[in-house]
Write a structure and sequence with these properties.
The protein has 273 residues and is mainly alpha-helical. It has one domain (35-267): Ferritin, core subunit, four-helix bundle (Ferritin). The chain is built from nine helices and two strands. A two-stranded parallel sheet has the order 1-2. Helix 2 packs antiparallel against helix 5, helix 3 (76-102) runs antiparallel to helix 6 (176-204) and helix 5 (149-168) packs across helix 9 (249-267). The longest helix is centred in the last third of the chain and has 29 residues, at 176-204.
């Protein structure tokens, strides 16, 4: 089955798909974890791999611009903070790729076609130069340049919150290997958010910094909201139908906005419109 950028995701099981469909439905109905490709219908298999790959891509899209700050952070303490956050991003992405490989999808050629494009309104040039002939076969990941330490913290405060909410939504996944792995990553996201909020208090309650803080809040809030934009209705419906997630995307969007509204109120910041 073709997916984005022409990638083929095909279940390697030799059991007929009709038989696997029955097994998938039975396991979902009885809340039994799905562990093996022989228990996955073709639709389940494609949906699972797409979900894992897209979650990994979101982590890479955050890791790339934050990586620049390892050498730019003004203090060793801040470099250590960034290194821990980067490790979390890359470890989660690597886990996702290993899980796709464990069910027979080889992600290496897929990963090799990633390229970062500069998001509109963020300035800068494309971090990766590619020829026009490669355009049709590339898999785009957004790149949002981070100019200051305040902006780095704001990206944590907003975008990491959106990804945390999406990650939390998979904790009861019908796919056993991910369900057993995700808890540690959910806890790591919470630690990153606690760190971001501690820094945000330093900025939000500093009168001289507040003028810079609110425009950046609006900027990164807009980036975070993009995580909840519906691009493929069938794919999203299948995630819910196969019990790979708990809530639909509109519910997650509302959860994110409500949480951001509360956090902005606590910090005395205007909630972005």
């Amino acid at each position: 089955m073709p997916t984005r950028a022409g990638t083929i995701i095909k279940n390697p099981s030799r059991i007929p798909n009709l038989d696997r469909e029955k097994l998938t439905e039975q396991k979902i109905r009885t809340k039994t974890a799905i562990e093996d490709v022989d228990d996955m219908s073709d639709e389940y298999y494609v949906t699972l791999n797409r979900l894992l790959l897209e979650m990994a891509e979101s982590e890479l899209a955050l890791a790339y611009p934050r990586y620049q700050w390892l050498s730019r952070a003004p203090l060793i303490e801040q470099s250590l903070i960034i290194s821990n956050i980067l490790r979390s991003h890359l470890r989660l992405a690597n886990t996702m790729f290993k899980l796709t490989k464990s069910v027979g999808f080889e992600p290496s050629s897929f990963i090799g076609r990633y390229y970062f494009y500069t998001a509109p309104g963020f300035g800068g040039s494309n971090p990766v130069n590619s020829t026009e002939s490669e355009m049709d076969d590339r898999i785009p990941l957004p790149y949002h340049p981070i100019a200051t330490w305040l902006e780095l913290i704001m990206s944590l405060f907003c975008v990491t919150r959106a990804l945390s909410i999406k990650l939390e939504n998979t904790k009861s996944s019908s796919f056993g290997p991910w369900k057993r792995s995700c808890r540690i990553f959910i806890d790591e996201k919470k630690m990153d958010l606690a760190l971001a909020e501690s820094w945000m208090k330093k900025f939000a309650f500093n009168k001289s910094m507040k003028k810079e803080t609110e425009p950046l809040l609006s900027k990164w809030y807009a980036v975070a909201v993009e995580e909840f934009v519906v691009q493929d209705e069938v794919f999203l419906e299948n995630q819910k139908r196969f019990d790979l997630v708990e809530k639909d995307i509109s519910e997650l969007n509302n959860d994110f906005k409500n949480e951001m509204r509360i956090k902005c109120s606590e910090l005395g910041l205007r909630f972005p419109q």
